[in-house]
Design goal:
This protein is α/β, with parallel strands linked by helices. The chain folds into 2 domains: 169 residues, Rossmann fold (3-Layer(aba) Sandwich), CATH 3.40.50.1970; 196 residues, Dehydroquinate synthase-like, alpha domain, CATH 1.20.1090.10. 47% of the residues lie in helices and 18% in strands. The strands form 4 sheets. A 7-stranded mixed sheet has the order 1-2-9-6-5-3-4, sandwiched between helices. A two-stranded antiparallel ribbon has the order 7-8. Helix 4 links the parallel strand 5 and strand 6. Helix 3 crosses helix 4 and helix 6 runs parallel beside helix 10. The longest helix is centred in the middle third of the chain and has 21 residues. The structure holds glycine. The site of glycine has 6 residues, from helix 5.
Length: 372
């Protein structure tokens, strides 16, 4: 079973990938230095029902389970405050180990909880969604949303280990599996043309949930991310490319109250918009743009939503990638390459958002629809 080491400026930790990776929990815990006073699992009721006992049964320490409601709309400071109070009531001290068992919301909240409770605890990620396995559980970004936008409060706090057990994907609703694949399409565009080809050639088995195919996609996606965070843990440079599709994708999520679309679906739409912008700048060969748009479409049926281009552009003003008033935008420039640009105008953003909305109305988003 593959084990990748994530090496950042502040931490090195293993990511165990594949069917049965969960069985590595105890050996991983045994490698941790320092005492463990208690283990606290943070999860949602649904994931607790499916996988909670399997994790608890492996833990040698006194174990507690804290439940948080599922859904992006609960990734808020209020949930975090409740968890802090619960940890204090349990008597959790700095030697407690937090275990995030669930998808991206659980992982991001638990990581942030670990970053701030008593000024910092260790935490371990057990991602149970494809999106969390291929992206959010690795790299140490943690945080919560504000009404004003996504992940506006948070911290970089690396986990001590990640167990990406692809068996947990067997209980994942199909829609979530498909949505999570958009982050793998993103990884492939960023830096792995072979992964892109693999997804093109094997999309049916991947969508059918074939464990071998999924394990390959998860491993290859994490490799792309590992290389990027090794170079730039705190997103001062190349890590921003992991936000491909996220500028307008986050705007779509904010415009729809985080309830209509899954994160991966919004990112799929955001990548369609970014692809259009790249095409209008002739920054990407048409053949690559067509292949990318087709893979996005074949991977996920992107659901419609209500928003206007004006509204979406206004929401991008709150983007974290904006520094000193300048937005960093990630342009796909080929299959396996992207570029960070800082000169995207409001007009270009508006045109990209309008293209995305028109594509949504036709439910036929494809790159060749760019006007000459
Ligand atoms: N999900 C983007 C990043 O980790 O940087």
């Amino acid at each position: 079973m593959p084990v990748l080491d994530i090496q950042t400026a502040t931490a090195t930790y293993p990511v165990h990938i594949g069917p049965g990776a969960l069985a590595h929990l105890l050996p991983v815990l045994n490698t941790l230095s320092g005492p463990n006073s208690m283990a606290v699992i943070v999860t949602s009721p649904e994931i607790d029902r499916l996988w909670g006992s399997a994790v608890r049964d492996m833990l040698p320490h006194p174990t507690h389970t804290l439940l948080i409601p599922a859904g992006e709309q609960h990734k808020r400071l209020a949930t975090l405050e409740t968890l802090c109070e619960q940890l204090a009531t349990l008597g959790a001290d700095r030697d407690a180990l937090l275990i995030a068992l669930g998808g991206g919301v659980v992982g991001d909240i638990t990581g942030f909880l670990a970053a701030i409770y008593m000024r910092g605890l260790r935490f371990l990620q057990i991602p149970t969604t494809l999106l969390a396995q291929v992206d959010s559980s690795v790299g140490g970004k943690t945080g919560v949303n504000l009404g004003a936008g996504k992940n506006l409060v948070g911290s970089f706090h690396q986990p001590v280990a990640v167990l990406a057990d692809t068996n947990t994907l067997s209980t994942l609703p199909r829609r979530e599996l498909r949505a999570g694949l958009q982050e793998s399409v993103k990884s492939a565009i960023l830096g792995d043309a072979d992964l892109f080809k693999y997804m093109e050639g094997n999309i049916d088995v991947i969508l059918a949930g074939d464990p071998v195919a999924l394990a390959h996609v998860v491993e290859a996606s994490i490799r792309v991310k590992a290389a990027i965070v090794a170079e730039d843990e705190f997103e001062t440079g190349v890590r921003a490319t992991l936000n491909l599709g996220h500028t307008l994708g986050h705007a779509v999520e904010a415009a729809t109250g985080y309830t209509t679309l899954l994160h991966g679906e919004a990112i799929g739409w955001g990548m369609i918009a970014a692809l259009h912008l790249a095409q209008t700048r002739s920054a990407i060969p048409t053949e690559d743009a067509v292949r990318i748009a087709q893979l996005i479409q074949r991977t996920t049926s992107l659901p419609p939503f209500n928003a206007t281009a004006d509204q979406l552009v206004a929401l991008t003003a709150r983007d974290k990638k904006k520094r000193s008033g300048v937005l960093k935008f990630i342009l796909p420039t080929g299959i396996g390459s992207t570029e960070i640009v800082r000169d995207v105008t409001e007009g270009e953003l508006h045109a990209a958002a309008a293209f995305m909305l028109a594509a949504m109305l036709q439910t036929l988003p494809h790159a060749t629809a760019v006007p000459a």
